[in-house]
Amino acid sequence: MRRLAAILAVDVVGYSRLMSEDEQRTYAHYRALHEEINKPVVDQHRGRVVKLTGDGFLAEFRSVIDAVECAVALQQSWSDSERKLPQEQRLVFRAGINLGDVIVEDDDLYGDGVNLAVRLEGLAEPGGICLSADAYRQVRNKIDARFEDLGERVVKNIAEPVHATVLIWGQHRCLG
Fold first, then answer.
1. Residues 2-21: pLDDT tens digits?
2. What DSSP string runs through 141-173?
3. Is the pLDDT of residue 171 over 70?
């Protein structure tokens, strides 16, 4: 089955390095944040966590506005939570959001719509949120935020360049 969905892809920046330094602490810390912040915030924004990806997660929303507001709320919550830890133990996240057609099978999502969200997440700087052109069109002039158009970007395993836009969140933006 296929459907249109707003996809939020999130990962931890430098997770492999953190795991190599203290695997048990890093894993326990990520799992605690997932239970205490990720799941509740996604639920509050009418989304659902589709799956964990080891060092991140994938969430689905019916509305791009919900996905973007969720991403901002997550970044704020993570930042507030991590502030109390030493710099070298902090988990910092980045996020990508796409609106696209997805294949649904057994509550999981597949396809270009998901792949593009993951690639956009890879363009985001630590603490940042990056949107596809389709996602941006749905939220421009509908939420109180600043955006920066990054133009076309070539990303891994996507045949054509993608148009990326960054949501300005604090001091964060996508890497150009």
1. 999 999 999 999 999 999 99
2. TTSS-EEEEEEEE--TT-SS-EEEEEEEBTTB-
3. no
The whole-angstrom separation of Cα 99 and Cα 19 is: 32
HEC sequence for 31-100: HHHHHHHHHHHHHHCCEEEEEECCCEEEEEECCHHHHHHHHHHHHHHHHHHHCCCCHHHCCCEEEEEEEE
pLDDT in tens, 40-95: 999 999 999 999 998 999 999 999 999 999 999 999 999 999 999 998 889 999 99
The CATH superfamily assigned to 2-168 is Nucleotide cyclase, GGDEF domain (3.30.70.1230)
Domain boundaries, the chain: 2-168
In this structure, what token pair is assigned to residue 162? 């993608």
